[in-house]
Amino acid sequence: MMKELLTLSFIFCFTLISAAQDKIWLDNDRKEVIDSTAAIFYRIKEIDDDAPLIKEETFYKSNDQLFSKGYLEQRTSYRTGTWQWFYSNGNKMRYINYSSGRIVGFLSTYNSNGHLMESYSYNKSRPGEMPFNYKFKKDNDGTLRIAKGKGPFNGAYVGNDKNIDSLSGNYKDHKATGLWKAYKNGVLIYEEVYQNGEIQSGKRYENGTSYSYNEYSKPAEPVVGIKKYIRKLFYNINYYYEQIDLKKNDYRTTFQILFDVNIDGSIDNIRIMNGMGKGPDEMAIKAIQNMKAKWNPALERGVKIKSTVSIPYAMESRECNDC
């Protein structure tokens, strides 16, 4: 009897371990596929019982070599801690540190021989946008460009602007300094002057017109000024709420008012996040619509862009049974 129990326990444990390590088949873009014959990679996830984390490992299907490894937060699925990527020959490809899905510190990339090629970090004031803060950079032919945060950059652009394909400028103390230029197919798109990694002035060229600016981006703002706009908005919301019956408990809440500001200064797509229900939310939207306020659109490198505005609003009960 004891032998049978031990055998059953072994089978049960083995089943649990196997279930925790089921393979998730992935294509070349690491998107899940059902058919394993179409897969290039496979992934294994394992829950860490000692911490609210999920261990994630991805492998090359062809040789079972590790492609990437790291941890996800169980609650949010955000990457956290050090993540590592590898070539199919086992040499390191990339190291990145995360904090709740946000990249922190320096990113390091390597060639297939395992030699360091780049080490850089994002500018905190505009994550993901070049020029990054560089510590080290080497060309594919082995030419050393930037060492100890100093040297020239002349290479591919990997930021958010699809109109740019290359950049040139200089680094000092890890940060962009002096004149920088951006190109698309050899045509100058913008030039900017940097000091300690921050834009001092810039000029963008587009369709025969130049736009001057002294900051990378500027948020949308109402023509009358944000303080006056919010005062009028809250007054309007309260006015409309007086016209409907709200249950006492509905008054204690905080929600977000969201809307898009177009490049012509008009607003649309008004919506409420974490609202109080159909009736109250409709009243808040009506209050915004009836203001008919004009906005100055957001700017990015001197060019008008569409953007989303978020305004928090808190409601409290007008009744007090304990007073």
Overview of this protein structure:
With 323 residues, the chain is mainly beta. The chain has 3 helices and 24 strands. Strand 6 (92-99) and strand 7 form a beta hairpin. Helix 2 packs across helix 3 (278-289).
Record keyword descriptors for this entry.
single chain; about 325 residues; mainly beta; ten-stranded antiparallel sheet; six-stranded antiparallel sheet; 24 strands; about 45% strand
Short description:
The chain has three helices and 24 strands. The protein is mainly β. Helix 2 (226-241) crosses helix 3 (278-289).
State the end-to-end distance.
71 Å
Helix content: 10-25%
Portion in strands: over 45%
Report the major sheet.
10 strands, antiparallel
Strand arrangement, major sheet: 1-2-3-4-5-6-7-8-9-10
Layout of strands and helices, then pairs:
Elements: H1 2-20, E1 24-26, E2 41-48, E3 53-60, E4 66-73, E5 79-86, E6 92-99, E7 102-110, E8 116-121, E9 133-138, E10 144-146, E11 151-156, E12 166-172, E13 175-184, E14 187-195, E15 198-206, E16 209-213, E17 217-218, E18 221-222, H2 226-241, E19 253-261, E20 267-273, H3 278-289, E21 295-296, E22 298-300, E23 303-305, E24 307-315
